[in-house]
Amino acid sequence: MLDDFLIRAALAGLGVALCAAPLGCFVVWRRMAYFGEATAHASILGVALALSLSLPILPAVLVAALIMAMTVSILTGRGYAMDTVLGVMAHTALAAGLVAVALLSDIRLDLMGFLFGDILAVSRSDLAVIWGGAAVVLGLTWWRWSALLTATLNPDLARASGIDPRREELGLTVALAIVVAVAIKVVGVLLIAALLVIPAAAARPLTRTPEAMAIWAGVLGGLSALGGLWAAFWLDAPTGPSIVCTAALLFILTTLGGALRRN
């Protein structure tokens, strides 16, 4: 069954959607949309370093994403506004990564595949990495769900309950870096943040509890992956952007549905 490239692509899209869904909810609640984008942009620099040093790409991307996330957290705590730090770091990381890739004259690299994803080229080993990463992220989220939710909604209450908000933020940062590392093959660097944010935002009008929002985000993310894959196949369009466009369409439908229900 896994010899069929469309089935491998569908399984890859579902794996990324499932691990991105609960984190996307926290990204929306914490208003960290550009945080995910900055972390994703750093992965291009990780790819360039891995190729230049003949290292595996996945660990290098994970380390680069973690360094970016830690740097943003440190600079934000030193008096810089979050949006300023994210604007500087995201564009710097992307530009530095593109320059580093351009300097790798002796290595052939499908840059468009890393920027916009190449889900149709997912292999069995890629599937193992994606679903392994999804299992780690979902396990970490389930384990720390209550603490993460309390630290997100009310940091003062979290401290009073013995929960360290900075520690929970660090765990969220690690999980985001893992998602970026496993999703780069599916939707690419430029679209990872969209897959994190749009399904979670689309799930918001449909739910009344955080747990329901996380579940619906996973459902809508899976529908986005499968629907985008189908649309790309029949329209002969790029797959990564098609997945994001499908997620955007679902966002429009749920938003209109929520508005009609309120009226």
Question: How would you summarize what this structure contains?
Answer:
This protein is mainly α. It contains 12 helices and no strands. The protein has a single domain (5-189), classed as Orthogonal Bundle (ABC transporter involved in vitamin B12 uptake, BtuC), CATH 1.10.3470.
Description:
- The protein has a single domain, classed as Orthogonal Bundle (ABC transporter involved in vitamin B12 uptake, BtuC).
- It is globular.
- It is built from 12 helices and no strands.
- The chain is 79% helix and 0% strand.
- The protein starts with a helix and ends with a helix.
- Helix 2 packs parallel to helix 4, helix 3 packs antiparallel against helix 4 and helix 10 crosses helix 11.
- It has 263 residues and is mainly α.
| Corresponding CATH superfamily | ABC transporter involved in vitamin B12 uptake, BtuC
CATH topology: ABC transporter involved in vitamin B12 uptake, BtuC
Average pLDDT level: 83
User: What is the helix tally?
Assistant: 12
Q: Give the helix/strand class.
A: mainly alpha
> How far from one another are the termini?
47 Å
Strand content: under 5%
Helix content: over 70%
Radius of gyration: 18 Å
The assigned CATH architecture is Orthogonal Bundle
How many discrete domains? Answer: 1
- Give the H and E element order: HHHHHHHHHHHH
Detail the poorly predicted runs.
none
Overall, the morphology is globular
